[in-house]
Amino acid sequence: MKPPTDLSSLTSALKENVDLKDLGITKHFSPGETIVTEDAPVRSIPIVTSGSIKVMQSDDTYKEMVLYYLRPGETCIMSFLAGLYHDTSKVKAVAEEESDVLFIPVDKIHDLIREHPEWLNYIFQIYHKRFEELLEVVDAVAFKNMDERLLQFLQKRCEVMDTDTLTMTHDQLAQELGTAREVISRLLKKMEAEGLVELGRNKIRLV
After folding, report:
1. Which positions of the chain have pLDDT values less than 50?
2. DSSP label at 95?
3. Do 122 and 80 form a contact (C-beta atoms < 8 A)?
4. Taking a C-beta distance cutoff of 8 angstroms, is the pair 190, 199 a contact?
């Protein structure tokens, strides 16, 4: 059984047709708005109902790196674990596009796990998916050149946004990949010469 791809399929997987929307509050976020902040207490578990969310982590110099993306029907497993064990968030979550997020209080999550085993199965599926994505990040940082990482990042982001054209500055790309803008600019020009991308003003199209 694959992880649910939207909230309705997740809801239907629970016994007695539990309506998750009745258990929490749905909030709307515009692109760039912060949903979860690093080091903040986690009192509610976020579930994306529309749009897409990027989950990031920063270091002591405030450099950030994208760890994975959340799509409709998915939750941030790191926020889930932090809330479950009354810990603070170790990641930052930001809206990638216009997004709606359902926040379910942590105490109600305990009830869902206890009363509906299907919910626990869903969490394990999400955990497995996030673990594989984190391994990809580690593999990219440890073993791949920056040009490979950049192409992989662009492909992943296009997949999440369901488009072949991204509206991003070189500064944004550098920040999310933890490198310098000059490096990104040089690599993009090289990729354009190789016919991999087409560059416009703050736009990158995958060919």
Report:
1. 1-7, 11, 14-17
2. E
3. no
4. no
